[in-house]
Amino acid sequence: ASCLVGSEMCIRDRVRDTAGREQEVKFAVAVIATGAEELSPAGYFSYGEFPNVITQSELEAKLEGDFKAKHVVMVQCAGSRNKERPYCSRVCCITAVKNALRIKKMDPSATVHVLYREMRTYGAWEELYSRARAAGVRFIAYSDTRLPWIGEKEVRVYDEITGFDLEIDADLIVLSAPLVAPATNRQIAPMFKVPLDSNGFFLEVHIKLRPVDFATEGVFLCGTAQAPKLVDESIAQAAAAASRACTILSRKSLESSAVISKVNAELCVGCGACEAVCPYGAISLKEVWIEKQGISYKVRKSGVNPALCKGCGACAMSCPTGALDQQHFRNDQLLAQVKDVFTYSEEVR
Ligand code: SF4
Ligand code: SF4
What we know:
- This protein has three domains: about 10-35 and about 180-250, FAD/NAD(P)-binding domain (3-Layer(bba) Sandwich); about 35-180, FAD/NAD(P)-binding domain (3-Layer(bba) Sandwich), CATH 3.50.50.60; about 260-349, Alpha-Beta Plaits, CATH 3.30.70.20.
- By secondary structure, the chain is an alpha/beta fold.
- It has a five-stranded parallel sheet. A three-stranded antiparallel sheet has the order 9-10-11, with no helix packed on it.
- It contains eight helices and 18 strands.
- The termini are far apart.
- One iron/sulfur cluster binds near residues 278, 283 and 309.
């Protein structure tokens, strides 16, 4: 989060640091970059049943240390592109090919088989795939209707291209598990009033026209918080989010729309109905002191942040005391117009 200290447009929120201390932060812009995490593929392809069935990130840790395997079988889409997670995790095919090449480089006599549903080494990464084939990595297509069978020292698979049933020796089986959205996204999304997609990732306002924006002003996103993607793609998107943030932070003042809501503090009873319905997080309740007949009271009053308000009118509709009005579309103005329409109709008749 970034802060325009002292600005009327600032948003306040409370955060808890790693030591458990809570503090209030003021910010004008927030970039959601919560990332994603590798699925633990328990229940898929004997993961957790045999110690030699591991994930790609566990393989990468081994490659940095004591890697000894002679026969490696990699299984793609281990937990993705199924009913539970229908999306392609995008990074796994490239990661598998990269790791297969590392194994071949360390030990050219090692065998590496990659069992795939479709190899998705998109764009320039196709070159990596060609290099892996040239280095002797074998690619075998399987179907989601005939999944590979994983034993402790052997893998059986039906090769979709040749039509043969294959038995492959394996002393290490590596599952390409997908990136999944962190569970905390479901807590963060309502805090910023931003949406999630059906897979739990943050959903931008428009994939082509506003790829790092949310409908809520001043909140942007980047990286795998949005969907699985490679590091270079995340960096490019982070640069885009930073540029969008600068379009706000570089200004001394912000111009708000003329059609925004305004609270009549006299009528507001602090019920919070407007805060709950505002889809853009533009309303917050504040505690204020008022004095009546010489006695001071602490009460809650609603306040609209003009930089965030989109003038949708939902708050004015929900307010039980009529304390909220949209400028230029006040309740009395609208009612006068409706009354005029009926009067005119009567006269014409
Ligand atoms: S709904 Fe109306 S009364 Fe309730 S907090 Fe909002 S402005 Fe105040
Ligand atoms: S008009 Fe819409 S955007 Fe503005 S404060 Fe009311 S509910 Fe929120």
